[in-house]
Batch of 2 targets.
Target 1
Amino acid sequence: MHNSNWARAAFAFLLFSTFATTSFGQYGDFGLPNQPADTASVDDIIYYGDYMDMSGGYNVGDTVFNFTAYDFDGNPVELYQELAGNKPVVLVSGSVSCIRFRNVFDPALPGQEVWSARNFIYDHQEDFNWIYIYGVEAHPTDGNCPSNCPPTVNTDTAVVQPSIYSERRWAMQDWLDSPIHDFPFTMYADNPDNSIYNHFFQRPFGLIAMNCDGTVGLRADWVTNYFADPANVQAMLDFRQNYETCQINWNPVDNEDDDDTEDPIEYDGPLSDLFGHIENGSVNDVGLHGESKPLAYYPNPAQETILLNQGAGTVQWVIADSQGRWVKERNVSVSNETWYVGDLPRGSYILFGMQNGQIALADQLILN
């Protein structure tokens, strides 16, 4: 097994290029240098765990990857650049169909849980650098819900799980147009590969407070539950009080071939918003991967587990150490599977995915 011919050249190249920069190994970048075109296909959602499992995504102490996301008008926000500011960056995930998220920004709704979160967010708008990421829909009306969130039939929204970028971008815009919600922030759309949601959150209304060096300082599984606890409110205030500024000394590898986006096009937007329209129909199948779905895994860096995501057929997944020795192997024939990697020493590895004897994925994997 360890002498397979397919691996020799790949090991030689990857070991040189990957481990030559081990000191920066925990930093990385999801892209994208340009706003995706409205027609760009959105990846299928992956398996996020069992019902109400909100444990996924980056945890406290993890070093996160950089990302660039765009608001409705194409204005970018780059995470590492924002981390160099004088306020702690707080990332929050949300969507139109996440009821808890929507309720927090509806001032007419009573309730201790939403009241606590609403008051803290509104009272501390200027104390933190709030960055809201519009990602996976929690309860879309087409039933294509994340595995850890139950389908909700009785919803007053009419938002499908986006299959193209424009559906995500226009649904995000509804927050600015809603007459019943007070949302005093800019919202940024996750990229078509769902990389921000898949790595940072994996939960519909999560929060991550960041240190300037790119490590996670605080984490909330549910924003509403988190601020209902006075101890967590104090933790956020202490985090702001003790915050120190710095800059991440890291530069991405310049690879012009990585830009696979298209130029933006004119688009009127789908009928999907906060008001309960019934005309926008079922999810569009444009760009769904099906059997040709590329291999993917989440998160990276990882701790205890990684989620293997693939299309049809059997994939041989292999983890190799810095000397090219295979330290873990698994054959997977289902579209989503969790792989336990907590038994490996912390450090840098190479993750391979092979189909029909050919390498379909080869990437550096960080365990921390």
Target 2
Amino acid sequence: MKDFICIEGVSKLFGDFKAVDNVDLEIGQGELFSILGGSGCGKTTLLRMLAGFEIPSSGTIKIDGVDVTNMAPYDRPVNMMFQSYAIFPHMNVAKNVGYGLRKDGIAKPEIKKRVDQMLELVQLSELETRNPNQLSGGQTQRVALARALIKQPKVLLLDEPLAALDKKLRERTQFELMNIQDELGITFVVVTHDQEEAMTLSGRIAVMDEGRFEQIGTPKEIYEFPTNRFVADFIGTINMFEGIVTVVGENQIQVYSDEIGETLTALGRQLVEVGQEIDIAVRPEKIFVSKEKPADEDGVCVQGMVDDLGYLGNRSLYRIRLKSGKIVQVSSQNRRRSVTRFLEWEDKVWISWRPRSAVVLLD
């Protein structure tokens, strides 16, 4: 994939505060890329620098080989869809969508043609004469998207594009957005704090914290193989066990953890040494829970008690208290229909997982 957006050594200071700290990033042409992070991490500032609303304190930004670092927003081959959508209340749907073309002096027949095409793309053809106050949240979101896309930018920047939608509508709109991006082939850069949204939408994700990228990779790479404690803890739910390395093998390591009371085995890709303090992390869905001790002796197996539980329909969540007092979260799929619970509070249980399910965290 051709590198289409190149961010090199970009920093942004507001007085003494460094909002973005010397970041490098390459985004491919036609890629749907997400920048994911919590409030104040610098993701929106970076997006505004791509749009031209902020100028970097240092570093360069190139789009399609052209240095746009100090270029005015209206001269850049980008458009931005704002979190608030910023729909004009006094214009109907068609006029909102065609606004940018009218400002550019495009002929009326061409505007009509392109507006009709865009409304068909976002499935709003039948609503072209409606005013914004007659639209649902999802329809308003699609009007804003159509208005941003109609000028055929090389890059579309989306700032928390689905934050105003309810959960079910947000999930459906994610797939609509992906289909539109795939059909048009435009490079999308999405800024979001919503982990599920980033994981669903994106081919790749950059996880950001305190102005820096902690990890860049596919959703599966970031979820299954986090490079440090921050990413592991930020993405989804995870159990972390402190321990000391006791054995270093060719493809795996052994770690003794007081929190478990025994030795854990993990597939270790990182360079570690005997005596080194590290964390072993395991996702809740990788852990099995049972009332009887599992026969498999290759994995980790430890006894505990059900401290708390929750039923979520498709799955159940359990908080298992170990003898050390450590709480381990377990997620179990509800494969069978039943009105009775598999486990109850204070049940004694065994939890277990395979070595390949454990992740070694050093930082």
